């Protein structure tokens, strides 16, 4: 295994983003998104046409700031030797969605099972309110996304939605920030889990009204709320893996105490 690329020469902004993406990966692991070393989280490097993405051979559960590679949003650019095979999926989404600054693709169990059904997601819980009526299901192939035309068709299916189900494969969740994409990935997995549970109950179940869905989107998923959920996730990562506290952003290190 070749040594990880040195991070000493990185800009402070990129180093800080690396720390956040690695925290996001660990948080996704806690949320049940591990499937060996498969799945990816990525985030645009602000002010550039590049993004950071978890390397191919690293799982969410073991990811560190050094286990990320830099990729171009341009699919014609030569990829890093450790770029994941599904890099094109992220490139296609970034090309199609200028509003998206982070992407999570995983094979999370409940998201995957829900995607295998023909159920429409309902607002069984707060989580489901985020996705009701805006969770397309991609059904053209269930294979790994390895080539650009397929990746572009996934991006087309995603449209302007916050997430898409990939039938018999997993899910794609996007966000205007890394915080949003990570939190929404947790929400989607929980929404799918709770609805699959409700579907087992004899006699059916109720879901939130349209007015309540709107109200929940306005309050439960407001930027301030998403930030607080992210802070909880980051705290959870720190409690689970105390060594991650040494992933100090450059900005903090340089600041006088
Ligand atoms: Zn996949």
In short:
The chain has nine helices and seven strands. With 257 residues, it is an alpha+beta fold. The radius of gyration is 18 Å and the shape is globular.
| Broad CATH class | Alpha Beta
Shape: globular
Distance between the termini: 38 Å
CATH superfamily: Class II aldolase/adducin N-terminal domain
The rounded Rg comes to 18 Å
Residues in helix, %: 40-55%
Number of helices: 9
The name CATH uses for the topology is: L-fuculose-1-phosphate Aldolase
- Chain-averaged pLDDT: 93
Largest sheet: 7 strands, mixed
- List the strand order in the largest sheet: 3-2-1-4-7-6-5
- Overall domain count: 1
Which H/E pattern describes the elements? HEEEHEHHEHEEHHHH
Quick one: how many beta strands?
Answer: 7
Strand content: 5-15%
Backbone structural class? alpha+beta
Weakly predicted, low-confidence segments: 1-8, 251-257
CATH architecture: 3-Layer(aba) Sandwich
Which ligands accompany this protein? zinc ion
Write structural notes for this entry.
Mean pLDDT is 93; it is low at 1-8 and 251-257. The chain has a single domain (12-245), classed as L-fuculose-1-phosphate Aldolase, CATH 3.40.225. Helix content is 41%, strand content 12%. It is α+β, with helices and mostly antiparallel strands. Bound molecules: zinc ion. Zinc ion is lined by residues 38, 86, 105, 107, 144, 169-170. Pfam families: Aldolase_II. GO terms for molecular function: L-fuculose-phosphate aldolase activity. It comes from Micromonospora luteifusca. InterPro entries: Aldolase-II_Adducin_sf, Aldolase_II/adducin_N, Aldolase_II/adducin_N_sf.
